[in-house]
Amino acid sequence: MNLQQLEYLVALDTYRQFVLAAEKCHVTQPTLSMQLQKLEEELGVLLFDRTTKGVQPTAVGAKVVQQARQVVREVQQLREVVQLEKGELIGELRLGIIPTLAPYLVPLFLVELVERYPQLRVQVEELQSAQIIQQLKDNQLDIGLLVTPLDDRQLREVPVLEEPFLGYISENHELYAQATIIPQDMGAPGLWLLQQGHCFRHQVLNICAPSPAATARPFTYESGSIETLKELVRHNHGYTLVPELSVLQELHSPMVKRFEAPQPVREISLVVHHGFVRLPLLATLRDIILSKVPERLQAGKVGQKIRWK
């Protein structure tokens, strides 16, 4: 058994295809297959079931993969510790970010981060919260940018922002005339929501617990995009809640309404596995983000944190 075989094992479990796993490991498919076969022979167990639909870990294979991921993570951390001692920051940074943050935060930090660390290959992927959490645990991501708290002992949270929820209301809606709004106003008809699976949707429901009448329509439409919801409202249809970063250029529009104090906010954090060692990189990323957004959004300001679970 060697580290290379464990890396191939983890890759096959991640991608569930021999060809794709080999491509990600930069080896030929026969090489990867042969090494995994040798590992199975050494252990005396079948690690994967091969079918026409792909590969699936066996019961014992799943346990071996879990342990292999831990070994691969620890070897990676060992290399990173040495890099830090040598003053180097090279290799790959895999960052996952939720879709309701990505359009508004990634353009603010990505270019500067790459400029500061030119030897670092930065890979950013939009994923929902549950996917980011699992991939951080499986060593498929290094850093997550998502809504917290997570209440997960395997993960470390570094709060960055507390972003207010704002009302976004069409001019022909009854709430448009109000200077501010309160959660009880969200019982009014015409509320647009993100589709299932988005933490932002759960937070909106936790803020206002709308009645069935609030979302009742002669048709059904749930979007995966904040921008789509805003467009629906702009075309004189109802109202929705949006994060402040999505309307920084529209804050003086009469369509945008703040909640009365205490404002509901979502806590946004950088999240890593407790074994993450590249802490200077984490601090730099946090500083870049904070330098690009209004100071009032900095974590620790007054607001009512809304949980997403």
UniProtKB/TrEMBL annotation:
<comment type="similarity">
    <text>Belongs to the LysR transcriptional regulatory family.</text>
</comment>
<keyword id="KW-0804">Transcription</keyword>
<dbReference type="InterPro" id="IPR036388">
    <property type="entry name" value="WH-like_DNA-bd_sf"/>
</dbReference>
<dbReference type="InterPro" id="IPR036390">
    <property type="entry name" value="WH_DNA-bd_sf"/>
</dbReference>
<dbReference type="InterPro" id="IPR005119">
    <property type="entry name" value="LysR_subst-bd"/>
</dbReference>
<feature type="domain" description="HTH lysR-type">
    <location>
        <begin position="1"/>
        <end position="58"/>
    </location>
</feature>
<dbReference type="InterPro" id="IPR000847">
    <property type="entry name" value="LysR_HTH_N"/>
</dbReference>
<dbReference type="Pfam" id="PF00126">
    <property type="entry name" value="HTH_1"/>
</dbReference>
<keyword id="KW-0805">Transcription regulation</keyword>
<dbReference type="GO" id="GO:0032993">
    <property type="term" value="C:protein-DNA complex"/>
</dbReference>
<dbReference type="GO" id="GO:0003677">
    <property type="term" value="F:DNA binding"/>
</dbReference>
<keyword id="KW-0010">Activator</keyword>
<dbReference type="GO" id="GO:0003700">
    <property type="term" value="F:DNA-binding transcription factor activity"/>
</dbReference>
<protein>
    <submittedName>
        <fullName>LysR family transcriptional regulator, hydrogen peroxide-inducible genes activator</fullName>
    </submittedName>
</protein>
<keyword id="KW-0238">DNA-binding</keyword>
<dbReference type="Pfam" id="PF03466">
    <property type="entry name" value="LysR_substrate"/>
</dbReference>
